[in-house]
Amino acid sequence: VLDEPAVRAAVHQAQEHLGGIGLLVNNAGVIEHQEADFLTTTLAETWRVIETNLRGPLTLTHAVLPDMLARGGGRVLNINSGSGHKRQDAYTGYAVSKGALARFTSQLDHQYRDAGLRVLDLAPGVVATDMTAAMPVHTTRTAWTDPEDVGAIVRAFGDGELDELSGRFVRAGVDTVAGLRRDAAAIVAADARVVRLVGLGPDDPVV
């Protein structure tokens, strides 16, 4: 996903074969090889994670978006993580990359909503994969997110059922399609599930 010419060639092939791309799911991602703090991790390792998890979605989206918008819009779903919104004792590169990805989601929504684009951040919860199985923090875990719960939200978003939540963050295993549809108006009214700087009251000049 970091090889831009290869990405653009693959996107072009998919567009030719499918007649266009209506839903892009940015799912590729990696994490540090060791559960360690920032200084214990090499800078190269931290950057490897940030570059893959952030540049990958940027590259794919940059390749897909022009044709998508030319056809009146579409949907981009970024596979994200709650780690991007929490202070972490380890996995600095992963947390930084996911926080930045959340801002990318909000940027896309802000810039292209009127052109018909809808964007969603989806945290898949903790699905049993090779990556999560190798993480010491999950060694004793017995409760895993059902992949079907993730797929249900992806399908609902692709079908346009969650368009009202564009630019926001949802989590499989906690959120359900029915619950998100029920609470969508309240989430939007509260401007919840977004990345923001919290000010010291309404008169704080910083925000």
Q: Can I get a quick summary?
A:
The protein is α/β, with parallel strands linked by helices and 207 residues long. It has 6 helices and 4 strands.
The number of E-state strands comes to: 4
Give the SSE string: HEHEHEHHEH
Tally of DSSP helical segments: 6
Question: Which CATH class is shown?
Answer: Alpha Beta
Regions with pLDDT < 50 over 5+ consecutive residues? none
**How is the biggest beta sheet arranged?**
4 strands, parallel
Helix percentage: 40-55%
Number of domains: 1
Structure description:
- 45% of the residues lie in helices and 10% in strands.
- It is an alpha/beta fold.
- It has one domain: 3-Layer(aba) Sandwich (Rossmann fold).
- Strands 1-2-3-4 form a four-stranded parallel beta sheet, sandwiched between helices.
- Strand 2 (74-79), helix 3 (92-112) and strand 3 form a beta-alpha-beta unit.
- Helix 1 (4-18) runs parallel beside helix 2 and helix 2 (43-70) packs parallel to helix 3.
Q: How do the strands and helices of this protein lay out in sequence?
A:
Elements: H1 4-18, E1 23-26, H2 43-70, E2 74-79, H3 92-112, E3 117-123, H4 130-133, H5 147-158, E4 168-171, H6 177-189
Parallel strand pairs: 1-2, 2-3, 3-4
Helix pairs in contact: 1-2, 2-3
